[in-house]
Write a structure and sequence with these properties.
Helix content: 40-55%
Strand content: under 5%
Number of helices: 3
Number of strands: 0
Distance between the termini: 47 Å
Order of helices and strands: HHH
Shape: elongated
Largest sheet: none
């Protein structure tokens, strides 16, 4: 019984530590961490692109410029040109 309590308390402590660390990061930087490939300026500067965008460039999709779903945002691009849900 005591071992389970120690494991649960360690798990709660770890989650609390990471939540506090993310909060401090948000307060210091003043904005959320940019984890989306297409909106992160450092990834753009390095030339890193999402897989969907690279695939479309590789197969030279003719409708990518006029397609409203292909905005360079990985969350909005879909390779099948289906409508967003």
């Amino acid at each position: 019984m005591v071992n389970y309590l120690v494991v649960i308390l360690c798990a709660i402590g770890a989650v609390a530590f990471f939540a506090i660390a993310l909060s401090i990061t948000l307060m210091v930087k003043g904005h959320h961490i940019e984890s989306e490939i297409s909106t992160n300026p450092n990834m753009k500067k390095l030339g890193i692109k999402c897989a969907v965008q690279e695939t479309r460039e590789d197969i030279a999709a003719e409708n990518c410029e006029t397609d409203t779903l292909c905005t360079g945002n990985c969350a909005g691009c879909d390779i099948d040109h289906s409508t967003a849900k």
